[in-house]
From TrEMBL:
<keyword id="KW-0812">Transmembrane</keyword>
<feature type="transmembrane region" description="Helical">
    <location>
        <begin position="46"/>
        <end position="64"/>
    </location>
</feature>
<protein>
    <submittedName>
        <fullName>TMM70 protein</fullName>
    </submittedName>
</protein>
<dbReference type="InterPro" id="IPR009724">
    <property type="entry name" value="TMEM70"/>
</dbReference>
<dbReference type="Pfam" id="PF06979">
    <property type="entry name" value="TMEM70"/>
</dbReference>
<keyword id="KW-0472">Membrane</keyword>
<dbReference type="GO" id="GO:0031966">
    <property type="term" value="C:mitochondrial membrane"/>
</dbReference>
<feature type="transmembrane region" description="Helical">
    <location>
        <begin position="76"/>
        <end position="98"/>
    </location>
</feature>
<dbReference type="InterPro" id="IPR045325">
    <property type="entry name" value="TMEM70/TMEM186/TMEM223"/>
</dbReference>
<keyword id="KW-1133">Transmembrane helix</keyword>
<comment type="similarity">
    <text>Belongs to the TMEM70 family.</text>
</comment>
<dbReference type="GO" id="GO:0033615">
    <property type="term" value="P:mitochondrial proton-transporting ATP synthase complex assembly"/>
</dbReference>
């Protein structure tokens, strides 16, 4: 176990010293978006999980020291309910709210596919590959959803796309019959 950990840390160090960015993944395509709350989301989820684990380990000790175990059934139910909310409901709720937060988004021009990197329930990065035609925009604005990739909700901040055309293509705005960027340029040139 110990030798594996040391080699894995060396691998991380070697990767970070190389000239390429740690987010370069040629197999996914070019990086078109990077979420600025990735570390915050990871930190909040990690804190929530660690407090839940702490609660689970401390519960028997608290019950033993406080004598709650011999009190009435009502007091026990209230105590377990309160601890249960903080131990299980909070991390589950946090995961549901943040599971679609896109940390990074890659695009492959030649096949018109995107790879969205999100965090899964165990805080590991998860890659979701989808085609531009799989993107559906919700009919009504939703708080934690910018678009759906097939059936999975995704959350991005449009202002964080270095190239606005990448966002327009992702959302399908460049295919809209009402407004085309090229037509706007032609009108400007005519004036």
């Amino acid at each position: 176990g110990f030798i594996f950990q040391v080699t894995s840390f060396q691998g991380v160090a070697v990767r970070s010293l190389s000239t390429s960015s740690p987010h370069d993944h040629p197999e996914h395509g070019r990086l078109v978006y990077k979420g600025n709350l990735a570390k915050t989301v990871l930190g909040v989820k990690f804190f929530s999980y660690s407090t839940s684990i702490f609660n689970l380990f401390m519960m028997p000790y608290i019950m033993l020291k406080s004598g709650i175990g011999v009190e009435s059934l009502l007091v026990q139910a209230a105590f377990y309910g309160l601890i249960g909310v903080f131990t299980f409901v909070t991390p589950v709720t946090l995961h549901i709210l943040t599971k679609g937060y896109v940390i990074r988004l890659y695009y492959k021009d030649e096949v018109d596919t995107y790879t969205a990197i999100t965090y899964n329930a165990i805080l590991a990065e998860k890659a979701t590959v989808f085609h531009q035609k799989d993107v559906k925009i919700p009919d009504i604005t939703k708080m934690f959803t910018t678009f759906y990739a097939k059936t999975k909700s995704m959350l991005v901040n449009p202002t964080l796309f270095p190239n606005p055309q990448d966002y327009n293509h992702l959302m399908g705005y460049d295919k809209s019959s009402f407004f085309k960027f090229e037509e706007l340029e032609e009108v400007k040139e005519a004036d």
